[in-house]
Design a protein that fits this description.
Blueprint (H helix, E strand, L loop, with lengths): L5 H6 L7 E6 L5 E9 L3 H4 L1 E6 L2 E6 L16 E4 L2 E5 L3 H9 L5 H5 L14 E9 L2 E12 L2 E13 L5 E6 L16 E4 L4 H11 L5 E10 L5 E7 L3
Antiparallel strand pairs: 1-2, 1-10, 2-12, 3-4, 5-6, 6-7, 7-8, 8-9, 10-11, 12-13
Length: about 240
């Protein structure tokens, strides 16, 4: 797969929805992940990321405007030992709890399917990073309806061992705006990971559509020491 410019890729899509990127920093020293959320409705846009333990959760920016918390209030990032879980929904907790009981990432996700938000049937996208003893690997998953047929759930998992420096993979919920919203298709897109955490965070945030972007989480994990550095950007302040 040919690598694409992350900036160009994000700028070409006004509504990729929620997205996960995982890869390795340009200098090869860090495992990198980014998770962003976007919104079209007042309810979806009324959110921020806040830290919770080693991870984050979504929270209403103005609680008085919250209409329906289901599907939009959840913990996108949790850490289980040397594994970092990143998802676009409450399947974060499913993965955490079942992997803690020795099930695999894929086995945990077999208990879940796409979101029940007809007619979109938004895909559940999930990622897991494993950093241990100077080694790094990751996997990405998508659970989606069969082209809008809610009677069937299509499950895809993509695993990457020892990713190359400066290379990442991005997966997101929608191919673009629409009604219903078109689900992501194909395998995660290969893209470059450039700069330190601040440069990378700025590039991702500035490439997201100004009207629709809501929040961004970025984490760099030192592959040798496993120390983490995190950035959170919220449009609502």
């Amino acid at each position: 797969m040919k690598s694409v410019s992350l900036n160009d890729y994000l700028q070409s899509n006004t509504y990729p929805g929620r997205g996960i990127l995982i890869g390795r920093s340009e200098d090869g020293k860090s495992a990198v992940t980014a998770y962003f959320i976007m919104g079209r409705s007042v309810n979806s846009r009324n959110r921020i990321f806040v830290t919770e333990g080693d991870g984050i959760r979504t929270e209403a920016f103005d609680p008085s405007k919250m209409v329906d918390p289901s599907l939009i209030i959840y913990r996108p990032v949790r850490v289980l030992g040397n594994k970092t879980i990143v998802t676009n929904g409450d399947q974060t907790d499913t993965i955490y709890e079942l992997m803690d009981k020795q099930l695999t990432f894929e086995q945990a996700l077999r208990t879940r399917e796409f979101e029940p938000d007809a007619p979109n049937y938004t895909p559940r996208i999930s990622g897991i990073m494993h950093v241990e003893n100077g080694n790094f690997n990751f996997a990405l998953s998508i659970l989606k309806s069969n082209d809008g047929d809610a009677s069937t759930c299509n499950r895809f998992t993509f695993a990457y061992n020892a990713p190359a420096a400066g290379e990442g993979r991005i997966i997101h919920t929608y191919m673009g705006d629409g009604d219903p919203l078109p689900s992501f298709t194909g395998e995660p897109v290969k893209t470059a990971v450039k700069g330190d955490i601040d440069e990378f965070t700025g590039n991702v945030w500035n490439s997201l559509n100004e009207d629709n972007k809501v929040s961004l989480f970025v984490r760099y994990i030192d592959i040798e020491t496993e120390k983490t550095e995190t950035r959170i950007v919220n449009k609502n302040k």
